[in-house]
Specification:
Layout (H helix, E strand, L loop, with lengths): L7 H36 L2 H23 L9 H27 L9 H28 L2 H30 L3 H23 L7 H10 L1
Helix pairs in contact: 1-2, 1-4, 2-3, 2-5, 2-6, 3-5, 3-6, 4-5, 5-6
Amino acid sequence: MSANTLTEERRSRLHRRVKFIVGFTITWNVIEAIIALAAGAVASSAALIGFGLDSVIEVASAAAIAWQFTRADPERWEKVTVRVIGIAFFALAAYVTVDAILALTGVRDPDHSPIGIGIAIASLIVMPALAWFEFRTGRELGSKSVQADAKQLLLCIYLSGTVLIGLLLNTLFGWAWADSIAALVVAVLAIREGIEAWRGDLESPFEVLEDLDQDVR
């Protein structure tokens, strides 16, 4: 069903679903940001601090979507909201890059962080389902802003995985540089996603799952 053929009842239901998704996203990421930033500051971890800042940016991104869908005509604000999300990606990439370079040059020396490992694992459990649910909703609505916000959540999945790998390598083998390399990988991904969001070029990050869903139907 395309956005143009949606009934008013279905459209209203999807709007309510978007509000639920952004409400959950904001709550989860506020908690995640507090834990990750505190743990990152204690451990001097560039990747973990970047992870916490990504959570802050996800809150801002979700808040932009929430604002859009409180308007009488949400579709009218699509372009502005997508651009805001694109800027959020670039801001994250800039900070993470600087912090990672400081760590690689010896200005900061990351320590072990069991709490950081735990929050990264929790994010890997929650975020994939939430991102997939939001992207499907945005696609059915024909909303690029909702799809862009889902890709922001997808970046959180990438970030969680790279941060977890970096923290584990540092903990198990003492490879402090792995933390910074993980952070730089995230910065590259953030720039790519920011460019796509700015252009409004939002391909589905869940193509395999969508193909399976179509086969079931």
